[in-house]
């Protein structure tokens, strides 16, 4: 089994390179005037690399986590220099202003990763992270306000297996918001999670995956409910939601996805699906009693999914390299 220590240096180098790579870039921006700024670096002085805003944000998160947890396995000076250049007060203030002026930009996936980045900086033991955490405060404030308003007004969750998935973002926001003491955000997530998902039963996970998923809608929802329900209530909720887990059913959920064309930027999402499933299978197993009949199948499935995609995390081209290392980190540390 691959250990994070074996790949940490490679992942850190890929992340630092991604952050410094402005082009190619998929700009998620509505241009309203002919003279409006449109270059990534002008729109996003902090997060203009890694092909798109959210990938740049979680590449920052990956570097902070590696610096804090495995400083002897990476080049700490490279990480510090990379993040000192981007996580400055003026740059992050500009990012916060952009979100406030464009309140649907990167909702909800990028928002969730940005708050996760703030939480990672806040808890990182390296002294270099202190100014990064302080600089990120205005962005966290903006996202908390936007998230509470969005969750209060949303009429239903989005259940797709891509960036728009509501449960994935809520789970990440709940975890990071708890770490940062963002009680209003955490409370809103708890309420909406129960409202939207509390009565779900017999989820059709045998319909998964779609051809460009990098998230499992079933496992994202289960992971969110693991976080918001009392620990004593979660096993029963999970039994109603995915009743076949002890038997490894549905088989579609337990079978790693294959990729036919590694140059297809959408199809390679399936590499990420395997890694995010591996992460969430492990988290769900950890929320169940050790002698629960579902625990062993979930852990076994996590290993199969992790091993199916780890060889493709780097070296397959920019369509994979710009984001997959973050999901590999999750699969290796869950």
TrEMBL record:
It comes from the Bacteria. InterPro entries: DUF2891. This is DUF2891 family protein. It comes from Actinoallomurus bryophytorum.
């Amino acid at each position: 089994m691959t250990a994070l220590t074996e790949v940490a240096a490679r992942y850190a180098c890929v992340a630092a390179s991604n952050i410094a790579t402005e082009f190619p870039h998929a700009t998620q921006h509505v241009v309203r005037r002919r003279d409006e700024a449109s270059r990534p670096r002008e729109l996003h002085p902090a997060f203009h690399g890694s092909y798109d805003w959210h990938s740049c944000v979680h590449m920052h998160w990956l570097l902070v986590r590696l610096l804090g947890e495995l400083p002897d396995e990476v080049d700490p000076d490279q990480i510090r220099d990379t993040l000192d250049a981007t996580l400055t007060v003026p740059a992050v203030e500009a990012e916060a202003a952009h979100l406030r002026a464009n309140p649907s930009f990167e909702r909800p996936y990028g928002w969730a990763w940005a708050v996760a980045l703030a939480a990672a900086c806040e808890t990182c033991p390296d002294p270099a992270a202190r100014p990064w955490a302080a600089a990120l405060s205005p962005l966290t404030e903006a996202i908390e306000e936007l998230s509470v308003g969005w969750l209060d007004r949303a009429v239903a969750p989005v259940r797709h297996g891509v960036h728009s998935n509501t449960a994935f973002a809520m789970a990440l926001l709940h975890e990071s918001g708890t770490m940062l003491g963002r009680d209003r955000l955490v409370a809103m997530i708890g309420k909406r999670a129960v409202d939207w998902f509390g009565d779900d039963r017999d989820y059709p996970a045998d319909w998964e995956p779609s051809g460009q998923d990098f998230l499992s809608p079933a496992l994202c929802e289960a992971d969110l409910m693991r976080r918001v329900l009392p620990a004593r209530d979660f096993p029963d909720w999970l039994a109603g939601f995915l009743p076949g887990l002890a038997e490894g059913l549905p088989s579609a959920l337990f079978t790693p996805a294959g990729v036919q064309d590694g140059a297809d930027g959408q199809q390679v999402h399936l590499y990420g699906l395997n890694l995010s499933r591996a992460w969430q299978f492990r988290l769900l197993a950890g929320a169940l009693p050790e002698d629960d009949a579902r625990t062993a199948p979930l852990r076994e499935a996590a290993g199969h999914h992790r091993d199916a995609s780890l060889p493709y995390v780097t070296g397959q081209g920019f369509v994979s390299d710009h984001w997959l290392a973050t999901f590999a980190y999750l699969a290796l540390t869950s």
